[in-house]
Design a protein that fits this description.
It comes from Kribbella orskensis. The chain has about 325 residues and is an all-alpha fold. It has helices spanning about 5-35, 40-45, 85-115, 125-145, 150-170, 185-220, 225-230, 235-260, 260-270, 275-300, 305-325, and strands at about 50-55, 60-65. Strands 1-2 form a two-stranded antiparallel sheet. Helix 4 packs antiparallel against helix 5.
Length: about 325
């Protein structure tokens, strides 16, 4: 096939994948909608979870099973609050996500074949590649940790990024600017994309942690919990899952961005570090996630404090990815639209 044919295939399958991700999102939204209401009796049937406030931290939340109960496993997405229809919607959403992922991967690969290089030389290409990494990390952790309960957030993010890339960031396939001609491009950008995907998953898990922990406290105060939230793992389990994901991403970001990046900068511009806005915000991103891991390891920060840092870190990463490229002038401006 000619480069033009590969470009045509990519331009066709990327929007198609966007639509299928959107259908998967609708399926997961239906799954959640089916469990919005629950009676007090149904809530009482769920094994109670007791939130113990740490006397040292003051805001540390740890879920422990009450007598006769059991805390949900990190990957659990079944339970008394589930329904057959909700489970069916979950399975359909996951199958649609797999289909969209295959098309998405095809679009990224054919984009690279059309350009005759790795497909992340501009904002459009990095957007479709980074969103592919989000979907890949999610599907990997679904297989390993049963994270299909995260499907709504993941498909929403991926569909939104692909839609924005297609409608606002599209650039025809073409050659790279001279500064990008290096094998360090592959190492640096691929590591940033994969770790960015993991950062996104960690942030989504942290957001759901905050929602679930609040619902658990409400149940202890005599309130009720919706069936959709009952089907989520315990808050404690989600806190541990977020930590695993971010612990995976942090060393990858460290090597790919703060080691491979400066080496590439020396090759391209003759210096390892120049305080370019992209370099500064990459360092800020690293500092936030380093603080997250350090606080958990030394000060025992878990629960709401850790989740808040993880969410802040994701917003810093997003600003580094979008805001710096589009709003700030620097040596990395070639990565803009």
């Amino acid at each position: 096939m000619s480069p033009e044919a590969f470009a045509h295939v990519s331009n066709l399958v990327i929007p198609t994948a966007t639509v299928i991700y959107a259908l998967a999102m609708m399926s997961h939204a239906l799954e959640w909608a089916m469990g919005r209401g629950v009676t007090a009796t149904a809530a009482a049937e769920q094994p109670a979870e007791v939130l113990v406030a740490s006397s040292a931290a003051g805001t540390q939340d740890v879920a422990v099973p009450a007598a006769g109960g059991a805390t949900a496993a990190a990957g659990s997405f079944t339970g008394e609050g589930g329904s057959a229809r909700a489970e069916a919607a979950s399975r359909i959403g996951l199958m649609l996500t797999w289909l969209a992922f295959v098309l998405h991967l095809t679009g990224v690969v054919t984009r690279g074949l059309a350009a005759g290089r790795v497909p992340w030389g501009n904002m459009y290409e990095f957007s479709i590649t980074a969103s592919l990494a989000v979907a890949a990390v999610y599907l990997l952790f679904v297989h390993r940790y049963k994270l299909q309960w995260l499907g709504l957030g993941v498909t929403l993010v991926v569909a939104a990024v692909l839609g924005l890339a297609t409608l606002a960031l599209y650039t025809p396939a073409g050659p790279l600017v001279p500064a990008l001609h290096s094998y360090w491009l592959v190492i640096h950008v691929s590591a940033a994309a994969i770790s960015g995907g993991a950062f996104t998953i960690g942030a989504l898990v942290s957001i759901l942690y905050l929602v679930k922990s609040r619902a658990e406290r409400r149940v202890l105060a005599g309130g009720t919990m919706s069936a959709s939230l009952k089907r989520l793992p315990s808050a404690e389990a989600m806190d541990g899952t977020a930590y695993k994901v971010l612990a995976f991403a942090f060393p990858l970001w460290t090597f790919g961005v703060l080691v491979a990046g400066p080496i590439w900068a020396e090759y391209a511009w003759g210096r390892y570090w120049g305080w370019d806005p992209k370099e500064v915000w990459s360092l800020v991103t690293w500092v936030v996630y380093a603080a997250y891991l350090h606080a958990r390891a030394t000060a025992g920060w878990r629960g709401r404090r850790a989740a808040t840092i993880a969410i802040v870190g994701w917003f810093v990463f997003i600003f580094n990815f979008v805001g710096v490229n589009l709003l700030v002038s620097g040596l990395h401006s070639y990565a803009g639209v």
